[in-house]
Write a structure and sequence with these properties.
The complex is a heterodimer of chains A (273) and B (253).
Chain A lengths: L1 H41 L10 H13 L1 H34 L1 H14 L8 H8 L3 H25 L3 H9 L4 H12 L1 H25 L5 H10 L3 H29 L13
Helix pairs in contact in A: 2-11, 3-4, 3-6, 3-9, 3-10, 4-6, 5-6, 6-9, 9-10, 9-11, 10-11
Chain B lengths: L2 H4 L3 H21 L11 H13 L2 H33 L1 H16 L6 H8 L3 H25 L3 H9 L4 H39 L3 H11 L3 H32 L1
Classes of the chains: A mainly alpha (273), B mainly alpha (253).
Chain lengths: 273, 253
């Protein structure tokens, strides 16, 4: 009972602070909207370049009523999911190879480390020649983008595994396949979760950038079509959909990370019994 | 066999690995395993780097891309440190907007470029603006993190010496948070470069990104590979140097 009472007094100031946080947030939204509408109405920009938010919302509803939108949405989602699956799988395998063998890691990891932040979109012309302008080249770029963060995250994770587990595996003379299944993978759940979180955003960027550059389907393609016919409200509505899609993806993967993250008991990597 | 032959030092082994890849690539091409029109052999790609330089394209494109990158990262650093300071200084604002900033940092910001394209037009302003937008969030977050984590005892020492507000900032807060801020600045620079090259490529304007797109459009495949390799190599060197600079500055402190 005492504990409950303490908790109540403890939450009061934090609730106060929370309300001032809420005020700040509401003010920010209002100011941003006012700036947007003001800029649009000021005549400083070309007409129609900054459309009123009412027009954008109307365009959004028009999109939702249009069956073609769902095709584009489905194509983009498919590209992101498949690119993400391929890139993170290959990245995890590469990360295991880099992490398990110390020497291989020393030799090859710097290559992965410095290639990781290079702009992958420059490889798009190569992927276009190899896979054509269909979904193949988009999946390729998405996969290429996620490969690197996953590989680096997993190889770093391997090095933090409690060496005792590995020694137990050795003394039981487990073959490599069983060591991976019973020791490495369970111990790597936090590293995998971090890798997934970092990979999702850049898989989205990779797929959508290639759609924008050259494609015939997908949300990026639809946004560029709207841009080319100067239908700015529709273009912005599509960008809004893309950002909500990316935000939701980040949110759910972020929850996954919190569930399995470094603070979780699972992170101590007990091998399954 | 001596041990250094089986396991040469990592640096040597790395070069041997890369050289081996190039030889395999060349052999696969010579044996007709991969089409020369899709993946030309290295012996055709490397000479074209020289040709690209000789035609004057590459050096100009390189300078342009890095000029835009530094302009964008500079603007991002100024704005980001100011916003980071504000989020640290005003606690309610920090509590309200830091999560938002983290969400913005994770968002695919480069996809906003059509909006900047219609506002600024197809020119360097759009590219610099996109680079700035990308470099801002890491600087904001790292500046705030650095300032928040300055040890309270340092601030108390300053107070006992009766430092003025400005002295407190430039003698204690700033030096103590510099390592973290510097990580933010380096990330900002990296993000600026990635986005500048990306937007150059997408809108086909200025710099190395445009060069790759143009060569691809003209089906000069060997030249396109050469330009891609050049972009990858320069960015790798750039990341390497900024990382070394960071560790050097932090050790010299």
């Amino acid at each position: 009972m005492v504990a409950v009472g303490q908790m109540n007094t403890g939450t009061r100031p934090s609730r106060l602070r929370l309300s001032s946080v809420a005020i700040h947030r509401i003010v920010a939204v209002v100011v941003i909207l006012a700036l947007w509408e003001g800029a649009g109405a000021s005549g400083l920009f070309f007409r129609g370049v900054i459309p009123s938010s009412v027009l954008i919302i109307r365009a959004l509803f028009r999109l939702f009523a249009d069956p073609a939108f769902y095709t584009h949405f489905g194509v983009t989602l498919f590209e992101i999911v498949v690119g993400f699956a391929i890139g993170t799988s290959l990245g995890a395998i590469a990360g295991l190879i880099l992490g398990i063998n110390r020497y291989t890691g020393e030799v090859l990891e710097p290559l992965v480390h410095y290639l990781a932040p290079t702009p992958k979109v420059v490889f798009l012309p190569v992927l276009l020649i190899m896979f054509g302008i269909g979904v193949g080249s988009k999946i390729g770029l998405g996969a290429m983008s996620c490969f690197f963060p996953m590989a680096l995250s997993v190889s770093a994770g391997v090095r933090t595994i409690n060496p005792m587990f590995l020694r137990v595996g050795q003394s039981l003379t487990l073959p490599l396949s069983q060591r991976i299944r019973k020791i490495y993978v369970p111990a790597l759940v936090p590293a995998l979760a971090t890798g997934f979180r970092l990979s999702f955003g850049i898989a989205t960027v990779g797929c959508l950038m290639s759609e924008i550059k050259l494609s015939n389907f997908g949300l990026g393609y639809a946004a560029m079509q709207a841009y080319n016919r100067f239908d700015i409200p529709t273009m912005l509505a599509l960008l809004l959909v893309i950002f909500v899609l990316a935000g939701l993806g980040n949110f759910f993967i972020g929850r996954l990370v919190r569930l399995h993250g470094p603070n979780n008991r699972r992170a101590t990597a007990l091998p399954p019994r | 066999m001596p041990a250094w032959l089986i396991r040469p030092p990592p640096l040597v082994a790395r070069f041997l690995f890369l050289a081996g890849l190039l030889v395999l690539w060349e052999l696969a091409s010579a044996a007709g395993l991969v089409s020369r029109f899709i993946v030309p052999p290295p012996s055709e790609i490397f000479p074209t780097i020289g040709a690209l330089f000789a035609e004057g394209d590459l050096a100009g494109a390189f300078l342009r891309t890095f000029g835009e990158t530094f302009a964008a990262a500079g603007l991002g650093a100024l704005g980001g440190m100011a916003i980071g300071w504000w989020l640290h200084h005003n606690r309610a604002a920090g509590a309200a907007y830091t999560d938002w900033m983290a969400a913005v940092a994770a968002a695919p910001l480069v996809l906003l470029f059509p909006l900047f394209l219609v506002i600024f037009g197809r020119n360097a302003a759009t590219i610099v603006a996109m680079g700035t937008v990308a470099s801002l969030p890491p600087v904001v977050l790292k500046t705030k993190e650095g300032l928040d984590n300055v040890r309270g005892v340092l601030i108390d020492v300053g107070r006992t010496f009766g430092l003025t507000r400005w002295q407190q900032i430039h003698m204690i807060l700033f030096p103590a948070s510099l390592p973290t801020i510097f990580t933010g600045l380096r990330l900002g620079l990296v993000f600026a470069l990635i986005n500048v090259v990306g937007v150059e490529f997408l809108i086909g304007f200025g710099g190395m990104g445009q060069l790759i797109g143009d060569l691809g459009d003209r089906f000069e495949i060997a030249g396109m590979y050469a330009a891609i390799l050049f972009v990858v190599l320069t960015s790798v060197c750039f990341f390497y140097l900024t990382e070394k600079l960071e560790t050097w500055l932090l050790s010299a402190r």
